[in-house]
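Shipment paperwork, digital attachment
Item: protein structure file
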Amino acid sequence: MSDFSTECYEGALPPRLEGRVRDFLSAQGLRYEPGDFTAVVRDTDGSVVATGSLAGRVLKCIAVDERLRGEGLTAPVMTALRSRAFAQGLRRLFLFTKPQNQGMFRDFGFYPISHTSDMLLMENTRNGISDFVASLDRGPQGGVHGAVVANCNPFTLGHRYLIERAAASCDVLHLFILSEDKSAVPADVRFALVRQGVSDLKNVLVHPTSDYLISSVTFPTYFLKDEQKAGEAAGRLDLTIFCDYFVPALSITRRFVGQEPFCPVTAAYNRLMHEMLPPRGVQVTEIPRLEKGGCAVSASRVRALWKEQKWDELRPLVPDATFRYLSTGVWD
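Attachment content:
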């Protein structure tokens, strides 16, 4: 390793080095995406020969020059990233790699969660996802168990309509609210507003997703150079995780989703559900959007009205608890 040096950077890389890292990753089939912390290994000529970044609890963009495989260049990158994560109090970590690299990262204490033909998701806890799904309330056994996965940013009457329709078709409805805190409404507030908003639906069980469904952990945008292909590959991985763990643990046989006429990314994800879930024993049902005033009730519309403080227009679109939070900041 005397011919190589490891450099670590907080936040953005220096522009010239960023260009070199971008070109290096592109040559490895990855698309550059900035991280919170980046490790770069260079040779005596200053060329980038290995790199990796940390974003939250995700180790990403890890690559080693193919000509130098076997030189131990992954180790300094992994050591730097894990040390930084642990210094921030992050103990549970995730990483993406290609399926053929599983053995290499097993040596660093990472265990496979699920994989597709393009990508493998690993975590540094042996039974992390299995323990998580085992902790979820399964509800009464028997009958039809369905699922809805939603962000509810914020919880609207459109969400309520979807959940009510889904619950009417099931004996038990498992409602998963995204746990990642990257929304306009904080995760704990979203979860509380949903629980208040469906408390009268006695067959609905509200669950967090942790990092395992529709998060930056399961939806990496950098993993393939082609952004559209990367989005599809990430969607396939996310749905594979759902089928591998959540479906058998909770006896789910139906998944409900709102029709998506506006967002092409969500519409593509819905199409993937129709392709992937039925062969795994899960029927997919799309429910038409609730409309008010000739327009679909959407969280994006509510957020826009919230930003503009158009309370009279916003009020008919959300439950009481959501309106109270948006107008006063009080939610409990």
